[in-house]
User: Fold this.
Amino acid sequence: MSVIVDKQICYTFSSNTSTGAKNIQNDGASFSVSLDSPIYIPKGTVDCTVEVLQAEVWNTSPNIATVFGNNRLSFTYAEVRYDFVIPDGLYGMSDLRPTISRLLANAGLPSNLFLLTGDQSTQKTVITYSLAGVRIDFDVPNSIRTVLGFDNRQSPPAGDSIAGQSDFSDNTAIFNRINSFFVRSSMVNNGLPLNNVGSGIIAAIPITARPGDQINYAPAIPIAVDASNLPGATLQFISFDLLDQNLRYVNTVGEDWSITLAIKYKILLTTENLPMLPS
Assistant:
């Protein structure tokens, strides 16, 4: 008589150092753990997979930052030049507009000197000038133009602004530096293929939360990632990386992230004499 028995063991791993995470690197995107009781999957088991059942990731990774070279706003008003540096952060249009208004006010200027809005029909940025005599210079190093969708030019293009004048960006705004998150782990050799390349990916996490909120990922049908390298091996040290769609490390801005996963495998129990498998 023979029977196949399904086995499953579950773990939660967190980047929180108070729960044992070590080697926090890459602005919080990478960490490792050392297990007191190593993971051991018996040799000879079949269909061994890793499935991420749940993940908690904060949607706080900056899209405007000094390191990205996209945080400078330069303009002239009444023949005086101003250079603003946008604080590193994760911005949507509704977040960037009040930030610029505060910078204007802090410089002693009208907080509504110019206003940024998004045009939903074209996905472009619209700059509306409340007063005359303003000229924004997007042709400077580290300009925010790449986020707003402007070419290397002046705005308005014909010279100083006229009160009430609007200027549309040349291209669509690009606020979404990160489109999705990926979790990579040393637990698997190949993992979930990304364009046919195995990179150790064990989960793809869509962004379902607003900037500043937590993503609670709990798929109805978790992806079973091949872990045929685990049977017969002892796993004590495990590393995890949080990456974006381009496999760049994600700056977590000090926020912890975690995943809960299951290792699933099958064991054949039999009272029969089985032929030896070819070596």
